[in-house]
Amino acid sequence: MTKAPKKMPIIIALGSAQTLGFGSTLYLPAILSAPMAEEFGIPTGWAFGAFSLALVVAALLGPMAGARIDRFGGRNILTVSSLVFALGLGLLGLSNGMIAMCMAWLIIGAGMAMGLYEAAFATLAGIFGRGARGPITGITLIAGFASTICWPISAGLEIEYGWRAACFFWAAMHLLVGLPLNRLIIPAGNDKHMAPAKAPADNPDNVRVKADTAVTPGYFTVPMILLAFIFAASWFIATAMAAHLPRLLQISGMDTADAIIAASLVGPAQVAGRLLEFGVLQRMHPLISARIAGFAHPLGASLLLVFAGPVGMIFTSLHGAGNGILTIAKGTLPLALFGPVGYGLRQGFLMAPSRFAQAAAPFLFGLLIDGYGVRAVLLTVGLGLLSCLAMMFLKTDTARSAAS
């Protein structure tokens, strides 16, 4: 048995790799879909549809990747994800039409199943067990700046050198930065740093109990279904807002400049919410902090419906802060409720519906805005409130109740 690894190098490595992963995948279509579609002579919606294929692949392969991490640890899976990302982005840069573009996104989707938050959270759960809540919060704090860092880079490369150069740049970054971070800093496996059956009382978070005593219920129980719905609803809301927020704010009565300023507050608000989770809310059960965060979007959106443009900044701040905390909850809630045993496979099942919701959100919410204007947020308000209701049915002893 070796000494448990230090948290900070792992947090910095995974956080940096996640920033690269999100910036070169989920945040890439917003910048490159239009120029790609223009060159290929296809509607921009088709380019976004190709990206949706990646989300579907990620949903289908997520449980398999999670189970692999449970068994062998996350280092190898995360390392392979860097190679797959590089391959997919390279092929995307070489694509000469719709079919080649779709094939490239399918490969990128496989990388997303192995290399984004779910895989990173499962890796941390394997290393630190129930002490992974702090590291999970840490990597989301770093990766929360993915859009802030990567959008300007992608846009600048596209303007100066074209969209293909942006794809090649991100492919190279996965090989030169992501690959070394995942391979050299992440510990080799889940079983190499486990502590004896009883963890020292003065250092509970830095070790993992080898014979974890947490009761681990099945993967298709009522609590699991509730969690899957909660996560899918939050991803739908977050993706719908990411795709349409400036337009929604303009329809509510804000001018273009003010709408962009208000929309830009989402990123800082997400980081502020995560800092709140890292500090004050860290003392609460993750379920309590998730319940509080779940009300943020419905409250802000309701204010927007009633008062329109003048409360746009309040709306975006509330939405961002709530979403920031709920992103952490996607990692900490399953860990707190069910324990670290089988965490990776559980995450794969929990997040599969979220990927489908994420794929559908831009199109469906866009149709609602076209038909109903600002009243389209009634859908996201309803989903948010249903999510909060579902959380009320979850208890801190859910795992034991489900297993008994």
Automatic annotation (TrEMBL):
Sorted UniProt keywords: Membrane, Transmembrane, Transmembrane helix
TM stretches of this protein: 45-65, 77-99, 105-129, 136-155, 161-181, 218-237, 288-308, 372-394
Pfam families: MFS_1
Matching Gene3D superfamilies: MFS general substrate transporter like domains
Cross-referenced PROSITE patterns: MFS
Residues in Major facilitator superfamily (MFS) profile domain copies: 9-399
Protein name: Major facilitator superfamily (MFS) profile domain-containing protein
Native source organism of the sequence: Thalassospira xiamenensis
Taxonomic lineage from the root: Bacteria, Pseudomonadati, Pseudomonadota, Alphaproteobacteria, Rhodospirillales
